[in-house]
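Continuing from the previous page of notes. For each protein in this section, the sequence appears first, followed by its structure tokens. Read the first protein now.
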Amino acid sequence: MRPLLLFAVAATAFAQSRRPSLIDELRILPSEHPAIDYWNARPNDAVAQLQQRLESGETKLEHDPQFGYLPAVLRALAVPVSSQALVFSKTSFQAVRIFPRVPRAIYHNDTISAGYVRGSEVMELASLDPKLGVVFYTLSQVKSAVPQFEARTTECLSCHAGPATAGIPGLFVRSVRPDRSGTPDRAPGFLTDHRSPLDERWGGWYVSGRNGSAKHLGNAIYERSGAENSLLGSARLNLDTLEPYVTSIDYLTGTSDIVSLMTLEHQTRMTNLIVRLNYEARMAPAGPLPAAVTNAAEELLRYMLFTDEAPLTAPVSGNKEYREAFESMGRKDKRGRSLHQLDLKTRLLRYPCSYMVDSEAFAEIPAAALGYVKGRLAEILDGKDQSPEFAAIAPADRKAIREILGDLGVLGSALKSSR
């Protein structure tokens, strides 16, 4: 194995105490590099493909008198309505329209996030392109014969290509302490993913669902004194619905599901690390893999196997519709097991391996780098690598993950030859 270079992310308002990153996340990779050509290459993500179907007449989008194209877009892109997550902090380019009682709705699947703001002229979309990374679009809510998804790359990348996204066009979830208008306080604040304890998560978000005795920052605004005020009456936690404070009259559903928020957080960083490795590998010179590539691969392996996952201190449960929708997304092995199966008792997933390894973006990582990841994953799952970061993976989980990936053909010969 190659020696690893450690980079600690510089302290910011969003830094957290955790294992130092193996990549220099302050280094923004050049998306204009000829091997990437982010600004000129033709995207081939799900939104771009939908646009092609619209222009050919193969697909039409029905316009809803209240929600515009939102319901039709979600159906066309297989994004479940039950994934709705509501954020009321002013952390969007549509900040002037967002308030605690008028939150922005986000809907997502494994590769697409769609944003809706009441009264706005546009929808926002972020879609993972297998080669380019995350591509950003807006869609006019004005009824049109052929709706047009417009690229909004320049404006969006001012926030979505920096240390918060591992230096590539990517995604992130912020947790802040908003005031009565939804404006975030300067500190404290966090970038959140599955490594974050619940007590750092969801500041500025509505959260429905059950989390037992565990605490989080959602459903509240904060005074200058630091005093916390619930937006949901006398209760703030462990509520199955947000009504009557946020209703299904104004939104597609009256929930902001806790499990949906957890899967969204997991896949933001997983998306960024896949894209980071893709970029590093494509920009690397011919020959042996340089440290920048192997470090990116090792950081991806640590995250995809949940080595630093913050354990749940109490069981979590959300709405049944989202759980069913999420678990139905995953391909199953011969025994009916899937990487999309949820645990929610002590951790997010039943099998601690990211479902995004079974994605087109993962498969599009250049061959040499992908081969490195496959080989290392085989070593880890076979128990040959017992280094501290992987030693905590239970033998039964290693075996199950290995069998699932083998049946799905995700890792091919690298995994089979290790048995």
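Done with the first. The second protein uses the same format. Note its length before scrolling.
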Amino acid sequence: MSESNSVSSGETGGGIIRVIYAFLAWVFVACVVVQVFLAGVATFGDATYWGKHMTFVHLFEFVPIVMFILSFIGRLRGGLRWWPFVLFGLIFLQYFTANIGKVVSTDFLAALHPVNALVIFWLAIVTALRASKRK
């Protein structure tokens, strides 16, 4: 997604809504980092952190939906409108990949959980960077 694509896709909007949107985008990025940290502590240290990992997501999983709604209020278009919707879908996919082993006996699909986390992190960074640009 080149710079010319972001301009031509109509990522417009300004004012306080865009500032709030950008703030929420960076908060979401920070939450994803904390979420990965909690998984790391649970994996390499204290397994009781799995509970914190599973609970923490509930504190930020709806941030992309708030961003999606704000994109309409702030007249943001293009990626800034639709990427939060995709992020929410990817969070839903996280639940699926975390629990697939209970339904289907395969480690392959469950192994997509950390890969999807990387995709979430990447898209969250892209969204936050684009939202933070001044027009």
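What the second structure shows: DSSP finds seven helices and no strands in the chain. The radius of gyration is 16 Å. We return to this in next week's lecture.
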